[in-house]
Amino acid sequence: MRRTSFALAAFAALALVLAPGLADARAGGGGSMGSRGGRTWSAPPSTNTAPSSQPFQRSMSPNTPSSPGYAAPGFGPRGNVAPRSAFTSGLLGGLVGAGIGGLLLGHGFFGGMNGGLGFLGFLLQIFLIVMVVRWLVRRFRGARPSFAGAGNFFAPPGGGQRPMPMGGGMGGGMPTRPQSGPPIAISQADYQSFEQNLQAVQAAWSAQDLNGLRALATPEMVSYFAEQLADQSSRGVHNTVTDVRLEKGDLAEAWAENGREYATVAMRFSMVDVTRDASGRIVDGSPSEHVTATELWTFLRSPGGRWILSAIQQAR
pLDDT tens digits for 148-159? Predict the structure, then answer.
């Protein structure tokens, strides 16, 4: 029985750890990546659609000591996860130590904690195995590089912003926050371009069309998309995102800096997100059900030019 419970715990732990890999298979993989010019390492203003956002996991914009950083709970000044509390560390250490003691005494992993913990012991096994498996996954995969020392495709920080009201099917912008530099006005045609870009990027992603993505996004974003598509191919799966519908959107901020214009938009959208294996069998998602995601997309352009995607961030 002990072996059976341990096997079930291990299976549940692996399911919890590995499931998100396919669940967030849309363009961007459910991550935060790209560049927002001089504002890459500062959090976008809060909006009704996305009250807060996750810091970038990958970016070619250097994160200098002078960067404002994220001040959200649980994150340090540069978006790093806050240290684990001493109480949590001590509790986990005690549980693991008691379990090892039980094994040495021949009472099983949880024999060192008065044995016979029954279902509670089973839950603790799942918890400990999840922690170990997550650590191993991070250990062998390695942290995704931030490319902090790589050449920056964008110009150095500068400019300012002021959120503008969104038109059409999108909600109003949030109050301004003081910053130096000129804000830019966003027109109804711009809002339509943002929505069309959202749909076009997902369509090119589904078709695995890198040339199409190059016409819609910066070289930095295309490099991330290409890496994710290659990872899908290596696993023998293919993700398609269809029937993309913009449900709600807010303009977080729009500004100009160093000859470029930027706009960060919070968007909640629904889609049919399905992943199939090489034989066409569905391994994740449903072709008849919509799923919803909330992300902040940043677009850039030369003044008077066409908007292209430069960053995707996940909302908290």
Answer: 333 333 333 333
Please answer whether residues 59 and 150 qualify as being in contact, where contact means their C-beta atoms are separated by less than 8 angstroms. Answer: no
Taking the C-alpha atoms of residue 186 and residue 240, their distance in angstroms, rounded to an integer, is 31
Domain ranges of the chain: 2-13+86-141, 31-62+155-314
- The helix/strand/coil state of 38 is helix
* pTM for this prediction: 0.64
Tokens 């995102």, residue located? 241
The tens digit of pLDDT for each residue in 197-211 reads 999 999 999 999 999
Rounded Cα gap, residues 191 and 202, in angstroms:
17
CATH of 31-62+155-314, one of 2.60.40.10, 2.102.10.10, 3.10.450.240, 3.10.105.10: 3.10.450.240
Instruction: Decide if 269 contacts 307 (C-beta within 8 A).
Output: no
Q: How is residue 104 written in tokens?
A: 């040495």
Strand partners, 274: 240
Q: Give the Cα separation of 53 and 12 in Å (integer).
A: 30
